[in-house]
Amino acid sequence: MRHGIRLMLLATLVACVAAGPAAAQAPQSLVVQVATEPPGLDLTANPASAIAAVVHYNIQESLVKVDRTGKIVPWLAERWHTADNRNYTFFLKRGVRFHNGRELRAADVRFVFQRAMNPETKHPHPGHYASIRDIIVTDDSTLTFALKDVNAGFLLNLARQGSVIYPREAVDTLKSDPIGTGPFKLAQWVRGDRIVLAKNPEYHVKGLPKLDRVTYRFIPDPNAALAALKAGDVDAAMFGLGPEHVGELQKDPRFTVITGDTTNDVILAMNNGRKPFSDVRVRRAITHAIDKKEIVKGAMFGFGRVLGSNVDPLNPYFVDLAGAMPHDPAKAKKLLAEAGYPNGFEAVLRVAPQYYYTVRTGEVITDQLKKVGVTVRIEQVEWGQWIARVYRQADYDLTIIGHAEAWDINNYANPKYYFRYDSPKFQEVFRKSEVTLDDRPRRELYVQMQKLLVEDAPVVWLYVHPRLAVTKKGVQGLWKDLPIPAFDLSEVAWAK
User: Fold this and answer.
1) In CATH, what number is assigned to the domain containing residue 127?
2) pLDDT per residue over 207-230, tens digit each?
3) H/E/C letters for each residue in the chain?
């Protein structure tokens, strides 16, 4: 009898030893579906949101951060100070280490921004740093940015994806193996299939990250993404799931559907530097020919908010101008005739099918433009080609893409941007807005800019792409809204 009791106690003890600690320390992993494989992983070389989805706030971080509410908060810098809005002194958080084990120093920060300001670097957004006159390092944890003039967007620019901090010695591997201070490290990149991130055990925020491993799987087709989710092959569909599937998934008790707002304004870009789109009458005609509500209904199954200008509803300076240039085919035809195209013209619409909404939206627009005599041929190109030909070389007539970056009205003040929109008047108002710190007059300038954009019609603002994410039940911590195009996974975990 005693022998039997001893065996039972021993068996129980063995089970507790085997199962107890293992259960308590069971690794938490998450498999995430994304629509597009990044063209590289260097946020200082390429503006693609597919890179930001993996790297920004996960692998690499900035001095300050935009949190889930849209507020700018201290991050690698524990605080900052300015007395005159021209000199900003940052005090770095102590004990922060890069993934290679070396401690973050103020000299690293200076190097990063000096490199971004160097024209030879070809940073995708050099204008974000044009106001910096000098960067003075006081000691290993203190540095001061001296500005040429006040810059209302300075702190926000430090939080953007192109402002991530990395060690000098890792410059040459940023594209394939980015090193930063983030909650995760790059563990593996299997081209064409997946990217794997592993937990950074020395992360500077106590208790984070909660996941031990994150796997990004590249599944561009919405139907394939849905199948992978239902089969249990992925735990979350972050971007690329078709809006037509949302209603079905909301009824399925296995899943949680997250719908929210983003800063991703989907546009029909017209090449303002190429005829006939160099004529404002043609651009206005194209705008009047398009029924945006029908596009949201036909391409997005009713998800998405119709836009009238570049500024999205998450921006405090947003003005609803969706009806400022309404759908009016008769007026479109009249404007085309005035511009010398009474019988319309032909154009090519280049889209990247990796983003499903570009093709769907293009199909609806093609039908609408045909009714006013504009014959459009859709040409699908892979993402790398789109970046090279459309974005870098402006080799296109029309294109559709979502601009996910927040507060990006500066693009319209850059005549070399791929729109090739060149308005001295707009540029002057934008410059004033950048040196206006008081909220009320700055808002008035933003309203003025939005109205100028409506008048000049450099592009057609179609709709805001909604935040559509679906997870298995039990996944918690994802952001509902995306006030900045980053998929911050540091607080994501499985419910216990």
Assistant:
1) 3.90.76.10
2) 999 999 999 999 988 899 999 999
3) CHHHHHHHHHHHHHHHHHHHHHHHCCCCEEEEEECCCCCCCCCCCCCCHHHHHHHECCCECCCEEECCCCCEEECCEEEEEECCCCEEEEEECCCCECCCCCECCHHHHHHHHHHHHCHHHCCCCHHHHCCEEEEEEEECCEEEEEECCCCCCHHHHHHCHHHCCCCHHHHHHCCCCCCCCCCEEEEEEECCCEEEEEECCCCCCCCCCCCCEEEEEECCCHHHHHHHHHHCCCCEEEECCCHHHHHHHHCCCCEEEEEECECCEEEEEECCCCCCCCCHHHHHHHHHHCCHHHHHHHHHCCCCEECCCCCCCCCCCCCCCCCCCCCCHHHHHHHHHHCCCCCCEEEEEEECCCCHHHHHHHHHHHHHHHCCCEEEEEEECCHHHHHHHHHHCCCCCEEEEEECCCCCHHHHHCCCCCCCCCCHHHHHHHHHHHCCCCHHHHHHHHHHHHHHHHHHCCEEEEEECCEEEEEECCEECCCCCECCCCCCCCCCEECC
